[in-house]
Amino acid sequence: MELKAKGFLFDLDGTLADSLAVVERCWSLFGEEIGVSPEEIISFIHGKPALTSLRHFMPEASEDELMTRFRWLEKMEASDTDGVAALPGAFALLNRLNELNVPWAIVTSGTVPIAHPRLKAAGLPEPKHWVTFEKVLKGKPNPEPFQLGAKCLNLDPTDCVAFEDAQAGIYSALDAGCQVIAVHAPEGMPRREKIHAIINSLEQISVTDTDKNGVFTVLVSKNV
Fold first, then answer.
1. Residues 49-65: pLDDT tens digits?
2. How are the residues of the chain apportioned to helix, strand and coil, as percentages rounded to the nearest 5?
3. Where are the domains of the chain?
4. At 119, which helix (H) or strand (E)?
5. pLDDT category, 155, cuts 50, 70, 90?
6. Which H or E run includes 85?
7. pLDDT-based confidence at 223, cuts 50/70/90?
8. Which of 11, 18, 80, 175 is catalytic?
9. Is 82 labeled as catalytic in the residue annotation?
10. What molecular function terms (GO) are annotated for this protein (predicted)?
């Protein structure tokens, strides 16, 4: 299949970079601290801002307590990049976009101290535009992050293809009005039928040159 787009918006963790080991190490330590199993922690946090997860697991904590825990987690995650690597197809796709001068941005729930070192550890190209936790009032699954991502590219969200791997991010991109390509989407996931394409790897994506109106063609191949 093919989609038409003027810009691209990428989630980072689980979409461009494999950082699962880091996330599981750090959040499992948090689980031990509050007496919640790593499995329960990991099943909830994926794709969501850290403060959203902290409020979920510490509903009676004060804002000061939450921020103290947030900074503790942020420091751990920012300093641990062991095992972070580019996911298959990510490097080639981003380089192709740069070669064609296609506007693109990273839209992540992570903070700057976490996201920037992970991108560097993965060896991926630096985007001109970042949307991180610090830049939004409401994080994923709210549509604000992808709305802001499109705005950074001076585009309407409908002219953007968003790549996401987490349910919260998929909902954020869909509600923003983006065309959404999901890197995996489990059977039975609510609103799965609204996703424009579901892939196993970014290796299934290719982009052809622009037409006179700055529109690029995104080709989605079968599983590779």
1. 889 999 999 999 999 99
2. 45, 20, 35
3. 2-18+84-220, 20-79
4. helix 112-122
5. very high
6. strand 85-86
7. low
8. 11
9. no
10. metal ion binding; sn-glycerol 3-phosphatase activity; sugar-phosphatase activity
Class of domain 2-18+84-220: alpha beta
Q: What is the pLDDT of residues 78-96, one digit of tens each?
A: 999 999 999 999 999 999 9
Backbone φ/ψ region at 161: left (φ over 0), alpha (ψ -120 to 50), beta? beta
Cα separation, 29 vs 88, whole angstroms: 29
Which residue, among 195, 223, 224, has the nearest Cα to 3 in the 3D structure? 195
Decide if 11 is catalytic: yes
* Strand boundaries in 93-174, DSSP class E: 104-107, 129-131, 160-164
Structural tokens at position 138:
């409401």
Query: Among 134, 140, 124, 114, which residue's Cα sits nearest to residue 22?
Result: 114
The active-site residue, picked from 13, 18, 80, 165, is 13
What per-residue confidence (pLDDT) applies to 12? 97
